[in-house]
């Protein structure tokens, strides 16, 4: 969910910002004020600069760190051996005891900004360029302070007092200064005004701290599980190299990664909690949105909801929070909450913040962009499996965006409709899609869903290209390739010879289409905002502080620790936006599927491997699971079940939390296959039933899964020698596939029917099915399936009598190269057996015994191999 | 009613005690009720009747069912409020503190009482501290306005107050007023369940503190919580229940309670206003208007609840009365949200929507959580065709109160205006859920289903049927039902609804195009059904109207006679020159 971040809004000065200013003064001391202490090395100086930069940019939290957190971070950056920074910081902070001190402080700060005339400085002097990131920060602080009214200054002073007290109340040496503060500035501490006993102040503070502790205990008790999950999420987020990530997961005992115990802050009425800058919060929300997408339902619902609630309380005008709440509830299948939050978000924002690439200024802007709300609502219904409502809403979105001539939204909506039509089995859109909707229906031609989909895809692609929406173009090409893969394109008005039929299901064609989509990677440059990457850099750097902690103390001396960190800072996050990576990744997945259908196992495997190794970081968990599924399926076919189940175990651990995942389906599939092969028919039936249950889930009908389930049902029946029942199931399945235009499945089902007839001894009946399957395979370029259909055909011929053996033999030999090259273990074995049978039944063949012996030997080795089935 | 005299004496003592503790709102309320008690004719003096409605016509008009029943549980369990007073020395400090308090110097008042241990002093000290915190909070809300809206500032006294009051409660040395304050603090801190228990404790031991009751009422948002309260019987409980019922939209129950209370407090302005409120929710505008006229006659400087009166005047389009009311409240107190709202309504009626928005804005500046101003402002924006602003205003109203069906309805309307009927349905659904007996809502929803974009006629029919069942004033539903059935090719149903519509129009003595349409349809329908007698009746009625339908009716009649007699056309007119 990439989105344009709101323009950074107002900037308010807070105690934390004052601390950063103090540190800035250390980093770049002005001429008048001598450096309180020298830096040990240049590396250390740079490290401070990096640290300050990270502090102003990181978006790993919504709240500013408290003083003790800042101090512990400082200690980590510079080691415990170098406490001067901390001392300086705390003394300066506690010296700010009256409004006048603050005024003087900020005047002093102005001195460290280098002006345009300050070129005559000696080499040692560090100048803060006013246009640099830190310089800008400082200027904004000074400006914000100058804009404060006297009340504001008083509040700042109070807050600084609380800020210091919280951190230092444990530390006895600072107590005295604090007391001076509180007694001399009664005005500034309104909560103590009525108390004239100084002792009472102290008692109150300690009591408060205790109360807070109690609260935190209580909360952590409630949130035990979510917290653990959240931690998991947190460290997955850090995009470091996989090795360190792994080690990180094992030993998450860093001292200052504060668990999200925001709830306790809710109960503190008067502690100084401040939001970070608008920019940082937007970055945080962005990151969380990405994480939500990536981790799906494993993201903790409650912990995040708590944060959002607090954020909403602190910044009621930040409407984005509602959107994140919507995403959160969407990921956790909470329909009502999602609906509520979606409506609330768009009611408030009028669609003018959020979605990609909306040109901000246009005539219709003043009326809001509610069509975007429709688009999102449609996608939400789609997600929850209400295809009818989704189509209704999306049609409305099309209409409204046409009315308001919002072409961008229209393009996206069309793409969403395409997605919907291709994903969910809708047999007939006539009642749903309005008549004014597609240009062709108005001519009076009734189109099948597939044809409509094709028209829509073309239209959407054209629109996206003309609007230069890179990502949309890419994803449209992907959708187009997907469409090509499973559908034969006929001319829409089909009269004339069949020669005009274009066949684009060939994988090379699909790849051509896909290549069009990966142009994107070279062009994303000017779209992605540097803002988000900056924030991600800083977050990652801060997160990495704790990682080399063990070695940091040792390496501090020779300075290599800092170098290492600086190096990490540069290389860590890839500069390609996640959404682009995701699109490219899915093109690889699609390639794998194309090759799988075509029948080239090695190519399919390679593509899946590429995906699994290169794109898992950026992908959503369901896509990654799909890649794993493909790899495991490959293993099962080529290496047997033992290895496949071992791999499945690993995958299950990785995708544990995704409940209705493909992994589960894969497991059932594998179990079913194995049960069939071993002849455990009861088990097979049981597994098959379970698959059927998954297929009839509440969240919409997944046609793919449904066909899969009934196909397996038919196969189980066949294995149990219940031929007529198997044939009936297969027949009804064929009818369904025909109705929904699932042509690839059609070929499989026909082949199954041929198989049923072959097994039942009705070879003559089986022949037409096998031939039909063959022709389907041909027209869809399903080479492997074609080979196995040929094999079945040969077997059928063979069973018709020995006089057909020659014909069968020639068929088998024609298919052998394909089978040996790409077929799985079982298919190869079947081919050998059939071939041997041919030789045996051919009386004219000489040297039979030798050949048969040879074949027998080959077979035995195969069967040995396949024994692990 | 036996308890009139006892009520009176109870209230007299209570008022003194309440104002002694600076609980001014509660004592004001109690005093109002005291005056509201019907006088015995025995000690009837002219001076007493000055504020009373002896000559009022309103009672004769609306109080047909005289309630003669005794109180529900017979006798109240506490008859007179008795509180022990602090001793004399305390008393002096107390007097000083109270004076400071009256001058709104809360912290000073609290400081004076710092060492006092009497219950009264402790209460006043805590209460003063609480108010000081509230005042500071209000100031901070403005001072701390951040870039992304107001940051949530809190009353900084709550923590210490809670600690002190909970200790007192544990020791058992807390009086009902202290309990009330404790409940208030707990409610502010968000621990609602404890707050409810504490407040129940407070009202059970001292029922005359209306403040405590209203805090308790704000904590009872569902009927279940209300029923789970363990309240002792007292006549104050009836007041509480009536207002709580109103808040959870059980208007008729609430009305019944108030009418029962009127038996004792016959002249209470408060009860009158509350009855008006309930009647307003039941959409009995005529009665509301009468009640408010009476109220204003007796209490001309009243501003409370007058915004509702202005709504009624607005609905009845009485612009002069509205302007009179606006002028009156403006002179009384122009910086009350209610006054601004009334002026806003006036300008809205006059069609000056920009000015109207300005006054609603002012009302909202005075009270950010003033629900009806948000909703009304939304209506104004709708009038000005500024839908995004309207949507925003309505949404804010909803965030203040989830149950405001007007705001949900307004949102639906706004989205329908923007040509997003499917999206609007969500909001209409919400509003009919909250107010299922309002035909207008159902009709709007049906209309939404009927739009060209959706054409979900079956659903529309369902909605119209609901609307027809709940007293559809404008009589749109029946007509639409008939039309829709006709469109869907169901002549029997169409005829049924046309007939009903016709009956209704006859009963209300209305005529118009709908009448003609119904008659024409019925005539043709019965003709095709070969029920010529009925068809003839309708045709003859049609002859009374002018226009093309008259000719159609004539030809229909002619055709029927032909088929009936079996002869070729032998009409009289045929031969006439």
Question: Can you characterise this structure?
Answer:
The complex is a heterodimer of chains A (869) and B (577). Chain A is mostly helical and 869 residues long. Helices cover 69% and strands 0% of the residues of chain A. Chain A has helices at 15-27, 42-57, 67-78, 84-95, 99-111, 133-147, 150-168, 175-184, 198-222, 224-237, 242-250, 262-266, 278-295, 301-314, 320-331, 335-349, 370-383, 387-403, 407-423, 449-467, 470-486, 507-517, 520-523, 530-544, 549-555, 560-571, 578-598, 601-614, 621-639, 641-654, 662-678, 681-695, 703-719, 723-739, 743-759, 763-780, 783-800, 805-822, 825-841, 848-866. In chain A, helix 31 runs antiparallel to helix 32 (681-695). Chain A is elongated. The model of chain A is unreliable at 1-9, 171-206, 211-270, 354-366, 427-446, 490-502, 525-531 and 546-573 (pLDDT under 50). Chain B has 31 helices and two strands. Chain B has helices spanning 4-20, 24-36, 58-62, 88-102, 106-112, 119-143, 158-171, 176-189, 192-205, 210-218, 223-228, 235-247, 251-261, 269-281, 285-298, 306-315, 319-332, 337-349, 353-366, 371-383, 387-400, 405-417, 421-434, 439-450, 457-469, 477-487, 491-508, 513-528, 532-542, 548-565, 572-575, and strands at residues 145-146, 149-150. A two-stranded antiparallel ribbon of chain B has the order 1-2. In chain B, a hairpin with a 2-residue loop joins strand 1 (145-146) and strand 2 (149-150). In chain B, helix 4 packs antiparallel against helix 5 (106-112) and helix 21 packs antiparallel against helix 22. The termini of chain B are far apart. Residues 46-76 and 569-577 of chain B have low confidence and may be disordered. Classes of the chains: A mainly alpha (869), B mainly alpha (577). The interface between A and B is large, with 46 and 42 residues.
